[in-house]
Amino acid sequence: RLHRRMERMQKAAVVGQLSNLIAHELAQPLAAIRYYCDGLKALIGSPGAPDKALLKMSAEGVEESLNRTRDIVDKVRSYAKSEVRRDAPVNVQKAVQTVLSGISASVREKTDFQSAVPADLCVKADALELELLLNNLLKNAFEAAALAQKPFVRLVAETDGDMVTITVQNSGPVISNEAFSELRTPLITSKKAGHGLGIPIAIALAEASGGRLDFRQRPGGGLSVTLTLQHSASHMEEESEDMEEENA
């Protein structure tokens, strides 16, 4: 009976974790859909003929966000079927650009953001998982930087042997040792609208991909977060290697 009870508790915990994952990650595309719908209503209600270019942009934004919502739901379903593959080459720069396109333009304009990512740099991962991971890191970085006198976010990606390190640094308030030690703890957060799930989810995704997340306090305030993942040849590099082998 104890064994069956523990089994039920374990299954309930897994279901709870998946529920938290989908609820946390769906918030961003659903918020984007709401903003685009508000924009469509404003365009339709404005005097004169609506701007077709703006209507098209809003419609495409809704479609893109709906596709992202579907991808997240499909991803959660694939976990239950153990169908997730994390060995495909995923372009880091493309993933970063996708994430940045979902961050409010007004937030980005107020922050000195600089990025140094080689165009052909790829890691072994799942494309959507890498985007979700980077979204958590960059969203937190921009939100923390907004509280600093000189808000800035820096992103640097480089190879280190067989691994790739992606470092995100941001200005922000000085973090106490107690708050820093609780960063990895689920359901603990200093944000009024937060749930304390972003960093634990990011850690889980990094470890599932054979990597890790390291956190360091910056002396002047803010954080430095380093994501380490396995390096992967890009599709073009793989095709070139295949051609060389065929020629040999």
- In whole angstroms, the N-to-C terminal distance is 64 Å
Overall residue-averaged pLDDT value: 78
Largest sheet: 7 strands, mixed
Instruction: Give me the Rg, rounded.
Output: 21 Å
Question: Low-confidence runs (pLDDT<50, min 5 residues)?
Answer: 192-197, 235-243
Supply the helix-strand structural class.
Answer: alpha+beta
- Helix content range of the residues, please? 40-55%
Shape: globular
Order of helices and strands: HHEHHEEHEEHHEEH
Strand content: 15-25%
Structural account:
The protein has 248 residues and is α+β, with helices and mostly antiparallel strands. Helices cover 55% and strands 19% of the residues. It is built from 8 helices and 7 strands. Strands 1, 2, 3, 4, 5, 6 and 7 form a 7-stranded mixed beta sheet that branches. The relative contact order is 0.12.
